[in-house]
Design goal:
Oligomer: heterodimer
Largest sheet of chain A: 6 strands, mixed
Order of helices and strands of chain B: HHHHHHHHHHHH
Shape of chain B: globular
Number of helices of chain A: 9
Radius of gyration of chain B: 20 Å
Strand content of chain A: 25-35%
CATH topology of chain B: MetI-like fold
CATH topology of the largest domain in chain A: Rossmann fold
Shape of chain A: globular
Strand order of the largest sheet of chain A: 6-7-8-3-9-10
Strand content of chain B: under 5%
Radius of gyration of chain A: 23 Å
Structural class of chain B: mainly alpha
CATH architecture of the largest domain in chain A: 3-Layer(aba) Sandwich
Number of domains of chain A: 2
């Protein structure tokens, strides 16, 4: 397994950072934190652009910074900043060649992505001869991503690469990144503060706040955890359900997802039959009742058990954590966060360990909540 | 210098002026460019001081600079002494004295356009080049310089034109020796003093036209000349 160890301590301008974590993953790790939490500083440091504070960085045991300092251009790390930074005096094709010409001989693996492949994957055929000034935001981004990948990095750092993209292109790019990550075994550290992007792309999440490491773990665990919910705020609080596409209703443009034997109908076509997908459901969009009501109010009726109830003293709301009943795989516990008024909680006489029926309207599942083709 | 005496003295002055302007620009490329780079990308506390010193020639009367250069060039100083050791000649009243003076006098004209050009390229572009495996020189010659073509052209043309138009410093440091330090601007002055207005007309008109053409080329090729002082 690949390991990227980062330790940083000191003042960066007026910002105080004290971070230490070993990123151990071959997949895609999302570095999540609010604006100004130090995400970009970490990326900058790994890329080799922060020198004046106490830093120790090693990649798979090789020290990049610490006892010695390997200059940025000798690190086998591909970095893409928020701004694509294509070289304005070069065409897209020349921009790609810029990276290819500078690949270090020790980084040439037998199994690297080729220029032709990446041009095809990222749909660059028609813009190869254009100068950056004549490209749209999305085109610039794809060209820059291709350029970074063609530098044949052994680790890829992406700093909020998709903030300028619309949903459709985002989903395409996310699919590409997942494929690239799996096929070419290049671990990705992906910085974002978009919850939608996280649920689609991440295998693991690392939370950072005020320059400090908070926690790390697999996506569904972190997303359901208190730290994450506190970071995104109660109103946007949500949970992620995972499952496989089991049925596609073309006529109504709906897809059914099998979540451990319970079924969730979602709009659109998040994947083809058998695909693994994640769906984000906002806590405030869930309706629960202690008794089954025969009703047309929602397409989806799931069954679960209340694990915890958190009554908020200062607000009108209560937060419930519900475990979905697992009909197939008992070990894969799926957690749903539900937000209701305390008034309703008392009225329904809900308590922990009580069985509840969960109603989810398919319209409340937005298109950004999952992978989309 | 024998060849010169056969030619029309004004042609000699013109050739000398062009030679001076070109030599100055070549020297400035090696001296001014690193200074511009340093000022654009370092955020040191010394920057304002360095910038002020470089900009001084823009605001000082040329005679002030000329005076200090004469003092500085005298054989008693290290520089003057060194020059005599190397060439057997005095730095003052020599062509190289003029070049030296012109470099100082035209430095802001080289540094400022290039500096803002470098700043426009930005640190992130440089860092991006680094992450793609380009070292410092690689980045400078293959990314920064090509992106700063216009700034470089502006620097060149402004410095060239400015050196061609020098008078005060050149007169003080060079003394206006025919074939050696007598440039076009001094020739015009001499013509006027001798009341040969016809000859002065030719030269002055020529300079006027040339300067206009130079500036026109500059403005056509580059609409955003940025000079901060002036």
């Amino acid at each position: 397994m690949s390991s990227l160890f980062i330790k940083m301590k000191g003042e960066l301008g007026s910002f105080n950072i004290d971070f230490e974590h070993n990123f151990q993953s071959d997949g895609i790790t999302v570095l999540f934190g609010p604006n100004g939490s130090g995400k970009s500083s970490l990326i900058s440091a790994v890329a080799g652009f922060i020198q004046n504070i106490e830093i120790f960085i090693s990649l798979n045991g090789d020290v990049l910074q610490g006892q010695k300092n390997i200059p940025s251009y000798k690190r086998s790390i591909g970095t893409m900043f928020q701004d694509p930074n294509l070289f304005q005096h070069l065409t897209v094709n020349q921009n790609l060649d810029f990276a290819i010409k500078r690949v270090k001989s020790e980084n040439i693996k037998s199994y690297n992505i080729t220029k032709i492949e990446i041009i095809k994957c990222l749909d660059l055929q028609n813009i190869l001869d254009r100068y950056p000034i004549n490209l749209s935001g999305g085109e610039k981004l794809r060209a820059a991503l291709a350029r970074t990948i063609l530098s044949q990095p052994s680790y890829l750092l992406l700093d909020e690469p998709m903030s300028a993209l619309d949903i459709k292109h985002k989903a395409k790019l996310i699919n590409f990144l997942r494929k690239y990550n799996r096929e070419y075994k290049v671990p990705i550290l992906y910085v974002t503060h978009s919850i939608e992007e996280i649920s689609q792309i991440s295998d693991e999440i690392v939370l950072i706040l005020n320059g400090r490491f908070i926690e790390s773990g697999p996506t569904s665990k972190i997303l359901a955890g208190d730290h994450f919910q506190n970071l995104v705020g109660k109103f946007e609080a949500s949970s992620v359900l995972e499952g496989f596409v089991s049925n596609i209703k073309k006529l109504y443009n709906l897809t059914t997802i099998n979540i451990n034997g319970q079924y969730l109908i979602v709009p659109g076509k998040p994947g083809i039959l058998g695909d693994f997908v994640r769906v984000r459901i906002r806590s405030r969009d869930v309706i629960i009742t202690p008794i089954k009501i025969n009703s047309y109010i929602a397409e989806n009726i799931l069954v679960g058990t209340i694990l915890t109830i958190d009554i908020e003293k200062i607000s009108a709301f209560s937060e419930l954590i519900v475990a979905l009943e697992s009909k197939e795989n008992k070990e894969n516990l799926q957690i749903l966060r539900v937000r209701i008024t305390t008034y309703n909680l008392k009225k329904m006489k809900l308590s922990t360990n009580k069985k509840v029926y969960i109603y989810i309207r398919s319209v409340s599942i937005d298109r950004q909540a999952y992978q989309y083709d | 210098m024998e060849v010169f005496s056969l030619l029309n003295p004004d042609i000699v002055a013109l050739i000398l002026t062009l030679k001076l302007a070109l030599t100055t620009c070549v020297c400035l490329a090696f001296i001014g460019t690193p200074i511009a780079y340093f000022l654009a990308f370092s955020s040191g506390k010394l920057n304002p001081i360095i910038e002020s010193i470089i900009t001084l020639p823009l605001v000082l009367p040329p005679t002030v600079i000329g005076f200090y250069l004469i003092v500085f060039f005298s054989p008693d100083t290290m520089l003057g002494n060194f020059f005599i050791l190397v060439t057997g000649e005095q730095l003052i009243f020599s062509f190289y004295g003029l070049v030296f003076a012109s470099i100082i006098y035209s430095l802001p004209f080289w540094v400022q356009p290039l500096q803002s050009s470098f700043e426009k390229v930005g640190v992130k572009t440089i860092q991006t080049a680094n992450t793609l495996g380009a070292g410092h020189f690689d980045t400078f010659f293959n990314v920064i310089l090509p992106l700063c073509r216009r700034g470089l052209l502006t620097s060149f043309i402004l410095s060239f034109a400015h050196t061609m138009g020098e008078f005060g410093i050149v007169l003080m440091v060079g003394g206006g020796i025919h074939g050696k330090t007598k440039v076009l601007a001094i020739s015009i002055y001499d013509h006027v003093e001798q009341l040969s207005f016809g000859k002065a007309h030719y030269l002055a008109g020529g300079m006027l036209l040339l300067s206009f053409i130079i500036l026109l080329t500059l403005y056509i090729s580059n609409k955003n000349i940025s000079m901060r002082v002036k």
